[in-house]
């Protein structure tokens, strides 16, 4: 029986929003599915060389983000607050035994998840091929569509 | 205590989703057919996750033990 297939379009580049595509991709691969992640727009941040573990989360415009003390929106936009929120979230993940984004990305590649970088958004955002980690393919909407049409699960994150 | 035989043990205690499943997959792949992996977890979600994973991959959970915030799974590699 042919493996089931899943594709994910990863369009976000913040620390929190990098987790869902990588958690789902690695899990699907562990469940014997063929998985493709298509990185577009800010999702490219995950697959830039040396960047996976440098992603940040911002308290601005993110009222659900837990903070040690209640922080008014104006304060949360001050310099340094992003770093505070990021290191807090990273330590929460670590405390709960959650893999880092970089670790999940490596696990995804190890388990055969296919990674495709969106050529158009790379051009627009000034991302060069040599900025992207090895093992990533390059393509556009038609490349994704061709795989998605034969997949049981297609997610946009 | 259980009298179930096992061939390998995987300690996934303290790890959260998706690591217990990813590590279980790797450990089962390293076994031969019909060998049994004992997996220990503390992730409360792992009880349902492990059942779903086994169903999808066709591996058999022989037994689940539950107690004091920990779970022990005995998984037989079926293929």
Short description, anyone?
Chain A has 157 residues and is α/β, with parallel strands linked by helices. Chain A has six helices and five strands; from the N terminus they run βαβαααβαβαβ. Chain A has helices at residues 15-30, 73-76, 81-95, 101-110, 119-125, 141-148, and strands at residues 5-10, 34-39, 114-118, 137-139, 153-156.
Mind explaining what this structure looks like?
The complex is a heterodimer of chains A (157) and B (79). Chain A is built from 6 helices and 5 strands. Chain A has 157 residues and is of the alpha/beta class. In chain A, 30% of the residues are buried. The longest helix of chain A has 16 residues, at 15-30. Helices cover 38% and strands 15% of the residues of chain A. In chain B, 29% of the residues lie in helices and 33% in strands. Chain B contains 2 helices and 4 strands, in the order E-H-E-H-E-E. Chain B has helices at residues 19-29, 46-57; strands at 8-12, 36-41, 60-67, 70-76. By secondary structure, chain B is of the alpha+beta class. The model of chain B has no long low-confidence stretch (mean pLDDT 95). Chain B has a 4-stranded mixed sheet, covered by helices on one side. Chain A binds chain B through residues 23, 26-27, 30-32, 96-99, 104, 107, 111, and chain B through 14-19, 21-22, 24-25, 43, 52-53, 56-57.
């Amino acid at each position: 029986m042919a493996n089931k297939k899943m594709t994910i379009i990863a369009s976000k580049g913040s620390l929190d929003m990098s987790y869902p595509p990588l958690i789902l991709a690695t899990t699907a691969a562990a469940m014997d599915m063929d998985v493709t992640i298509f990185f577009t727009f800010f999702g490219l941040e995950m697959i830039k060389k040396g960047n996976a573990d440098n992603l940040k989360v911002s308290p601005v415009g993110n009222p659900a983000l837990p903070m040690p003390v209640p922080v008014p929106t104006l304060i949360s936009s001050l310099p340094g607050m992003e770093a505070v929120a990021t290191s807090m979230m990273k330590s929460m993940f670590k405390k709960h035994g959650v893999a880092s984004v970089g670790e999940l990305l490596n696990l995804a590649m190890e388990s055969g998840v296919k990674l495709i970088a969106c050529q158009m958004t790379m051009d627009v955002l000034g991302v060069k091929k040599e900025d992207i980690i090895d093992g990533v393919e390059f393509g556009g909407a038609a490349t994704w569509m061709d795989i998605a049409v034969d997949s049981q699960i297609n997610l946009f994150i | 205590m259980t009298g179930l035989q096992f061939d390998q043990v995987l300690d996934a205690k303290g790890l959260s989703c998706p690591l217990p499943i990813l590590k279980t997959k790797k450990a089962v792949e390293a076994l031969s057919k019909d060998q049994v992996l004992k997996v220990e977890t503390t992730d409360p979600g792992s009880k349902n996750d492990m059942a779903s994973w086994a169903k999808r991959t066709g591996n058999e959970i022989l037994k689940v033990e539950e107690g004091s915030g920990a779970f022990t799974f005995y998984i037989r590699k079926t293929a």
